[in-house]
Amino acid sequence: MLLKRIVSTIVLVSVTVVAVMFEPLFIAVILLFTFLALYEFFCMVEKKGVLTYKYFGTIVGLIIPFSIFYKFELTKGWELLFIVIALITIFVLQISKKNTTQAVFSISTTLFGIMYISWLFSFLIKIRLLAHGAALVGALIFITKASDIGAFLIGSRFGKHALFPQISPNKTLEGLGGAIVFGILAAFASSAFLPAIDIFSHARLLFIGFGISILSQLGDFSESLIKRDCLSKDSNRLIPGIGGMMDLIDSLLFTGPVFYFYIVRIISV
Question: Which residues pair with 243 in a beta bridge?
Fold first, then answer.
């Protein structure tokens, strides 16, 4: 399992580096990852017995990042308008059905999947479109995944005190400590390719490393909560040693949006 995880990580790192450097490839990878994650989410939920509008949800989920990349905005916050339109359309689809059982579950779950995966993950595109976007999104992914690796390595070796055993008994307090240490070290290491080094002071790098580490673990716990509720160990077995696409991007779903707002509103890069 460890060997498979190492090989998968090397392949994913290679793909990520190339994709971050070339915008067209980056949007293609984001769309592919979004599609696979949405498919996994809707399949997991349906195994639980909840009917969803997975095809419609997947289409809307792909339109959101696509429109952000090409800056197709009829109004400010165009992706939110997509979600409103999606909600109305799902209600129309539900009303037109003969069987109206599970209406609340079907509507809310479909909309949740769109927002949780597509909208949150699309913030990586927003970061990529900023000035020095390649360096910024590279730093975000590097710090987030370094934190994940730290949690895995330290937790599997020294973990004894479970944080939330009712959700994931394998995630420990020691693993959280490893995530924070690795995340902070990665933040300082990322200063080598971050823009405007004077803006990213040591204090800010420390804050970014700590904050992303905490958020990445929250993202991991959130996906674990969904999987446990759906009685699934992994979202899929697509990636050897890692699991499914949701298992791969879960931490970025939380770190991406917060990092974007921190860069745009606080640092104003």
Answer: 239
Q: Between residues 102 and 56, which one has the greater pLDDT?
A: 56
Alpha carbon distance 203, 119 (integer Å): 30
What confidence tens digit (pLDDT) does each residue in 171-217 have? 889 999 999 999 999 999 988 877 655 567 888 899 999 999 999 99
User: How far is it, in rounded angstroms, from Cα 204 to Cα 202?
Assistant: 5
Structural domain containing residue 210: 2-267
**How far is the C-alpha of 69 from the C-alpha of 24, rounded, in Å?**
9
State the CB neighbour count (10 A cutoff) for residue 104. 9
- Closest C-alpha to 239, from 39, 42, 8, 43: 8
Residue in this structure with the two tokens 């509008």, named with its chain if needed: 53
145 CB-contact burial (10 Å; exposed 0-12 / middle 13-18 / buried 19+): buried
Q: How far is CA 157 from the centre of its chain?
A: 26
CA distance 96 to 65: 29
State how far the Cα of 252 lies from the Cα of 210, in Å rounded to an integer.
15
Domain count of the chain?
1
CB 269 within 8 A of CB 263: yes
